[in-house]
Write the structure tokens for this entry.
Amino acid sequence: MGRVSTAVGLGAAAAAAVGAAAAGVKADRVAADRRRLGVLDPEGGFTHTAGKELTVVAADGVQLHVEVDEPAEPDPALPTVVLTHGYTLSLRSWIFQRRALVKAGYRVVLWDQRNHGRSEASDLGQLTMEQLADDLRAVIDAAAPEGPVALVGHSMGGMTTMALARHHADLVKERVVAVALLATAAAGDGITDLGLGPLVGRAIGQGAPRLLSRLAPTQRWLSPVRKAGRRVEDAVIDFYGFDSPVSEELVRFAADIILATPFEVMAAFIPVLRDHDEIDTLAAFADKDALVLCGEGDKLTPLDRSELIAERLPEAEFVVVRDAGHLIMLEHPELVTGQILALLDRAEARSAAAEATARTGRGTTGRKTKRTITDIAKGRKVKAARTKAARTKADSTTARPSKTKNGPRKAGS
């Protein structure tokens, strides 16, 4: 069970890892090597009070939890930014982006996809991409009924965004001015390989629904033993979620979100992701300002997934982040937020350019190229923290009393 548990996927693997810990598997077997640094934690912590909370009723009656943040002086000319989270996550995963976007003057709408976070659970048979697209449409209609909209989707949230373009083309055509697709895929074939290759990874990935369904009845009994199995749990989240140093608190924050998702929901969504295919739908975003962003070390939606999207959206900004994994918006929050803000700036500039084109009859377009960037600011923080830790360790070693043949000797004597 321990071997299988570490390869089921971000949510599934974490769940199975806790089960493995409960069964007595030694955590040392999957201990993380990466150092976690508290200096990387945000000043405001990991909690946020929404400006407003809504309950949006989906077409089939399921109640969706929605939160809205508004700037002190909202500008109606700016688009409302709608953030859609990924598989086994919740709107809490956008904690850093929502703060920054509101500070920059944007109205922000976030929601928990059905059976995730604080949204109501529907029948598992209702978990389809078409249904998720309908849910997103309902959220936009209720929380942002007028004005321009910018869509930002991570992982499964990006897939939901693509599905929206197919099932609600009118909304996308008329109101969407920008779209950001983060760490996602336009086709689900092989998406459960988990970075282990098509043979081993796919075999384990396809067995995940059955494994998780078997674990589901025991989920409520696992909470008391999670503390004992933290090292296993953290190691799996760390391995599949990140590709650079992150703090212990961030790993715990991510793990708490992921493991709040019921195992049977994790299981039900895996075939939905695997059968996802919206490659042709990407054409609906061809005339929008678009951002395709992924981590170079993403094991769940690898680089080639984003490359395929970028091929279909040649005018999109295609950004690859070094030392970044699947949970890129948590791992490199300032960098990701900066790219989203740059996208919104381009959308505003495009609007102005469109007006100029209408007057002059001239416009410009051009194919974008892939850019690979590094989070320099985070790198500096990590280096400074490690240097400080090394000095502290050296000072404590120097100050530690040493023993001689005649007994203890004070430092410096």
About this structure: The radius of gyration is 23 Å.
